[in-house]
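> call design_seq(struct)
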């Protein structure tokens, strides 16, 4: 049951991340250097594949227990092992690139902001306004002194630059909380896949030796 819930949780998180307003706004911005778009789509497909693999592993393990099938048990073990082999590189990537997701999203905001600063009539102004409204922030700290005009046109109503939150900091804080939750779920999933591999291995050997014992206890009597 826990594996089912874990698989559904990963599928839900992947869907929310992929279609959530904060993430789609940044991903849909048409910039050649939008590296976040690749991360955005890769994370979604990885999450969906992982959730399907875990649910399939749970189904196979349950069926193997009921039917005492070595074949189904081996297939369940393979699914758990496949999920484990995908989770370890994902965890290593997150550990070695701890800020890459946050940096790529902030880079996109930075590029959009600079385009609007250079050309106030740019169509990027609508994208910048949408980002400000989604993250409830207003502009960024900059050494340039011509930001007030941009922020007055793109910040949400009621947000004053002096009291509004810096968008780069707001994006970083938002993503840090989200990625901490994702990393925690990743660690829990790794633990359950190890548990699943151990359980299916034990189940396979139990069925194997049980069937051997059943065969040893059978005798055929022939008439003389």
């Amino acid at each position: 049951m826990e594996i089912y819930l874990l698989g559904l949780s990963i599928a839900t998180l992947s869907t929310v991340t992929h279609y959530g307003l904060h993430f789609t706004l940044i991903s849909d911005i048409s910039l050649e250097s939008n590296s976040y778009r690749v991360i955005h789509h890769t994370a979604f497909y990885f999450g969906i594949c992982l959730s399907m693999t875990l649910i399939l592993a749970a189904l196979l393990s349950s069926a193997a227990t009921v039917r005492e099938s070595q074949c189904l048990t081996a297939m369940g073990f393979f699914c758990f092992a496949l999920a484990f082999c995908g989770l370890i590189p994902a965890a290593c990537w997150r550990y070695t690139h701890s800020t890459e997701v946050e940096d790529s999203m902030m880079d996109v905001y930075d590029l959009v902001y600079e385009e609007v600063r250079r050309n106030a009539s740019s169509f990027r102004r609508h994208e910048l306004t949408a980002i400000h409204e989604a993250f409830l922030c207003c502009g960024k700290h900059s050494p340039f002194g011509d930001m007030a005009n941009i922020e007055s046109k793109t910040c949400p109503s009621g947000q004053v630059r002096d009291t509004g939150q810096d968008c780069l900091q707001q994006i970083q804080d938002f993503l840090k909380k989200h990625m901490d939750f994702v990393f925690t779920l990743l660690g829990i999933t790794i633990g359950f896949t190890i548990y699943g591999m151990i359980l299916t291995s034990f189940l396979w050997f139990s069925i194997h030796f049980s069937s051997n014992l059943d065969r040893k206890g059978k005798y055929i009597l022939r008439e003389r």
